[in-house]
Amino acid sequence: MNENTSVSSTALESDAGSWQRSLAQAIRDPNELIRLLDLPDSLREPARRAAEQFGLVVPRSYLARIERACPHDPLLLQILPTASEAHGAERFTDDPLAESECRVAPGLLKKYAGRALLVTTGTCAINCRYCFRRNYPYGLEPSGLDEWEPAMRALERDESIHEVLLSGGDPLVLSNARLESLCERLASIEHLARIRIHTRLPIVLPDRVDEELIGMLKSSRLTAIIVVHANHPNEIAFDCADSLKALVDSGLTVLNQSVLLRGVNDSADVLAQLSERLVNLGVIPYYLHQLDRVTGAAHFEVPVEQGRLLIEELRHRLPGYAVPQYVQERPGELHKTPLL
Ligand SMILES: *Cc1c(COP(=O)(O)O)cnc(C)c1O
Ligand code: SF4
Q: Of 132, 160, 165, which is best to mutate to test ligand 1, by the most ligand atoms within 8 angstroms of its C-beta?
């Protein structure tokens, strides 16, 4: 066993910073959310019921970017549990990407050439109602570091893999100490060259981006790439913009992926503004995902034909590098499928 596994939970707690307090103070009670945002009382009961299926979690800093008394706020729609989630459209399932079929070890998914993905945690700082892993069986995946060894050994055996994606849940809900041990263990695998962190925390819990985290990522032997997840320009305000800037200024490559969502960003104006805000901070729009058909998210779906027209419109308005690739994840395909 290497020394990474000796990180104890007390060591993890000792580096508890302000972001961990922000996370603990996130709103989890739909009634509180509705009260704080002056939303109609009629939303309470549906929210309570939908939250039984997939809990409400929203950090207060995200709440500050939502307009009060506005049931159609594009940020609110991403987090408010609603009655629409119970309308299970056919063809919407619990495992829309057939991820259970590409699980090669506990917590390790291998779907594409050269890359593998670690489901590092089931926890997020925010619960996005459209999340394609909202019904993922996280309980089956590793939690302690020693439980990761089978996945690490599988990575060691497969020399075709050069990049490991840390996903989840959100890998940045792990403490810096925990992340560092994971990164060190990965760095010990010679054929790995890059580590990619898929995270929504710089957007929804910006104080997570601390110097220690940046220092750790910069000093790893592995080249680190950060892929954040913002869907609407209003998300990229205040402290969120500062965090993205800090990541970019440190020299890390920072990309953004979005999900095309009805009522949130199904408009060329919104998508163009989002791209503008991102590239102004040095963040490159990477993917615009067609919604994955997960149970409970049918009401967010935008027809592919409309998505294509939106991208077409973006091409007229923006520099080429500011137009994300419009893609769909299809089970069994060798890469994400471009929709143009
Ligand atoms: C999306 C995804 C990747 C990364 O794909 P890129 O096109 O390189 O961004 C890797 N593994 C899995 C399982 C994925 O779902
Ligand atoms: S942050 Fe990502 S993984 Fe977490 S709920 Fe949102 S979409 Fe899902």
A: 165
